[in-house]
Write a structure and sequence with these properties.
By secondary structure, the protein is of the alpha+beta class. It has 2 domains: 37 residues; 52 residues, SH3 type barrels. Helix content is 46%, strand content 25%. It has a 5-stranded antiparallel β-sheet with strand order 4-3-2-1-5, with helices on one face.
């Protein structure tokens, strides 16, 4: 039994390391990937470099941000988005938008 105690301790050590370090890191990476995949126009984000901006356009790998001052637009790789500070509000369905436009025309 003493012959195997070293191997058992080594396996136990790797098991503890996996559950305390590797597994939480993979879970966090999965959450970040989901956040980046769910980016939509209108979201307010902060890049990993600390730049604040509003998402204007999202492609497969490129995100175009509009800066709050000067209305400058910059393109970033999707992986450069660090966090979303404010999600965009849901847009009204097309029918509701058309009704409000018609109502405004009638008022004039």
């Amino acid at each position: 039994m003493q012959e195997y105690s070293g191997i058992i301790m080594l396996v136990a050590f790797f098991g503890i390391m996996y559950f305390t370090m590797i597994r939480p890191q993979k879970k966090k990476e999965k959450e970040i990937k989901a956040m980046r995949d769910s980016l939509t126009a209108g979201d307010e984000v902060i890049t990993i470099g600390g730049i604040h901006g509003k998402v204007v356009k999202v492609n497969d790998e490129i995100v175009t941000l509009e800066m709050p001052y000067g209305k400058q637009r910059l393109e970033f790789s999707k992986w450069a988005i660090g966090s979303v500070t404010k999600k965009a509000k849901e847009k009204a369905p097309k029918e509701e938008v058309e009704e409000t436009v018609e109502d405004k025309k009638e008022e004039e």
